[in-house]
Amino acid sequence: MATQELETPSQKEPHIEPDQKQTTRLYDTVIVGAGAAGVGMAIALMHAGVENYLIIERDSVGSSFAAWPNETRFITPSFPSNSIGMLDLNSVAIGVSP
Questions:
Q1: Residue 91: which of 33, 43, 52, 30 has the closest Cα?
Q2: Number of domains in the chain
């Protein structure tokens, strides 16, 4: 059976006014979502020396966390008195804690 590719509105070229110039920028990495994991990934990329990345978020930064029920928003470090330099197992990146 042959398949047919349909063009959806998201695949169409965006409308550009004649006096507007369209630019293209290439990124090494694109992160989808600016929640804790997305921001943590950006921090991890920075630690790895990757600076050419883009975070895409359909709402605002941290909006997924704001949508959590109030009872689940209180997050504490795994090691509140971390005097021995252990990593916080709940952190999203090295050197940060929730």
A1: 43
A2: 1
Domain encompassing residue 43: 27-55
Q: What is the pLDDT of residues 9-64, one digit of tens each?
A: 455 555 667 776 778 889 999 999 988 888 888 988 998 999 999 999 988 887 88
Q: Flag whether the pTM goes above 0.70.
A: no
Query: Please, which residues have CB within 8 angstroms of residue 24's CB and are 6 or more apart in sequence?
Result: none
Dist. CA 7–CA 4, nearest whole Å: 10
Residue 24 backbone phi and psi in degrees, to 5: -120, 135
Looking at the domain assignment, is residue 45 inside a domain? Answer: yes
Q: Does residue 53 contact residue 28 with C-beta atoms inside 8 Å?
A: yes
Question: According to the model, what pLDDT value does residue 29 have?
Answer: 96
